[in-house]
Amino acid sequence: MTAQAPGWYAAGLGHVWLPYTQMKTVTPPLPVARTEGTRIHLADGRVLIDGIASWWTACHGYNHPHIRAAATRQLEQLPHVMFGGLVQEPALTLARRLAALLPGDLSRVFFSDSGSVSVEIAMKMATQYFLNRGVTGKGKFLSFRHGYHGDTIGTMAVCDPDEGMHSLFTDLLPRHFIADLPVDDESAAAFDTVLDAHGDEIAGILVEPLVQGAGGMKFHDAAVLRRLRAAADRIGALLIFDEIFVGFGRTGTMFACEAAGVVPDIVTLSKALTGGTMALAATVATTRVFDAFWDDRASAALMHGPTYMGNALACAVANASLDLFEREPRLDQVRAIEGWLRARLPQCRDLPGVVDVRVKGAIGVVQLDRIGDLNALKRAFVEAGVWVRPFGDIVYLTPAFTVTEDEVDILTGAIRKVLAAR
Ligand SMILES: *Cc1c(COP(=O)(O)O)cnc(C)c1O
Question: Site: Participates in the substrate recognition with KAPA and in a stacking interaction with the adenine ring of SAM. Where (predicted)?
């Protein structure tokens, strides 16, 4: 950092533990003074164009005036009240709107505060769904290599075994079934073998539809999702779509399940749910799933309830985000971004070490044979005036949907320049 580092930086940095970070060798994080649109203003006066929208949450850009106004209004009236025995307008309105947006009869919304927890809730729901109906022995999940569903212990167990560091936590993690996505004949045969051998143990098939995000931004076709729907029906398991990454327009439709014409039994949402402003997540179940909990027995109830469940401020912000999807041409913007990325990113194909370039919706990926010095690469992007954070073997863009063509030009140009200089 430079001499302009604010006092709070030096005083506080020694007391935080940063995410996914070797604290000893980390390049010091950059102090941010403010955000606006697609720009991150650093404390030292530099301004970065954001290529990843804070882990693809800030889909309308930062500090959108409509979201800011909704937050301010809600803050004055009712920031939070417990969801046990009390309800408020923002949460009920958001639940109604999500139910209307999602396909089929995905119509019961269980709120929580983070993506990982919403997946844990989906797993509890699926397990208890069968117990409530008198079906025993279904305590396992089937998930996929390169999948990512969160960092809590329950969700780590359904992540990619290598990425999720299953070997480090062998004694801690429950065992589930992890298969390759059935994308071709060979993988489909291996997948069917798991279903034949263990189908009656499996409560749910859990997948990130269309794009496996944090596990490497790997894409698959909608046909794979139809195959998973048929597989779940065949073994009598629930189909769970983790739409935390792809939900709210990222791949070109409001939800990825729409592109496949598949209605899952449970959907998880978070990330862009509040347009990047507040922590909020939702687990949405179909009527059939909900009905298994609708019972005279208290023991059939879903025993879960995060303290900040249905937080009114977060729900008001999420409603404002949904307003923006209605009022502004977000999905058209995603299509335009897809075109801009397709016109520019393939120019990286000839650079040394580039093994693949792919684009889907407002997601652009350059995959390398190996990254090498990750910290140096991250620094080079900052020096180029952009906020781009490579991980694993990829450099990616997931910009705000409000990004301009000029900004996409700068972002893709910076990737080309930085990778060429490697
Ligand atoms: C980010 C993410 C999660 C975890 O969400 P957190 O809010 O970080 O707990 C789960 N699933 C997918 C697909 C994600 O992208």
Answer: 20
In this structure, are residues 367 and 354 in contact, taking their beta carbons and an 8 Å threshold? yes
For residues 131-144, give the mean pLDDT. 98
List, for residues 210-240, the tens digit of each pLDDT value. Answer: 999 999 999 999 999 999 999 999 999 999 9
Is 242 known as a binding-site position? yes
Q: pLDDT band for 1, please (50, 70, 90 cuts).
A: very low
Choice from 151, 217, 271 to test ligand 1 binding pocket (greatest atom count within 8 A of CB): 271
pLDDT tens, position by position, 315-367: 999 999 999 999 999 999 999 999 999 999 999 999 999 999 999 999 999 99
Name every protein residue with a CB atom under 6 angstroms from any ligand 1 atom.
Answer: 114-116, 119, 148-150, 208, 213-214, 242, 244-245, 270-271
CA distance 189 to 167: 27
20 is catalytic: yes
| Beta bridge partner(s), residue 396 | 365
The model's pLDDT over 141-196, given as tens digits with 9 standing for 90+, comes to 999 999 999 999 999 999 999 887 888 998 999 999 999 999 999 999 999 999 99
- CATH 3.90.226.10 matches 7-63+329-421: no
Is 148 an annotated catalytic residue? yes
Residue 308 annotated in active site: no
- DSSP 8-state symbol, 56: H
Q: What is the pTM of this model?
A: 0.97
Q: Boundaries of CATH 3.90.1150.10 in the chain?
A: 7-63+329-421
- Mean pLDDT computed over 119-123: 98
For domain 65-327, give the fold: Aspartate Aminotransferase; domain 2 (3.40.640)
Helices (H), 78-221: 89-101, 115-132, 153-156, 185-198
How far, in Å, from the CA of 242 to the mean position of ligand 1? 8
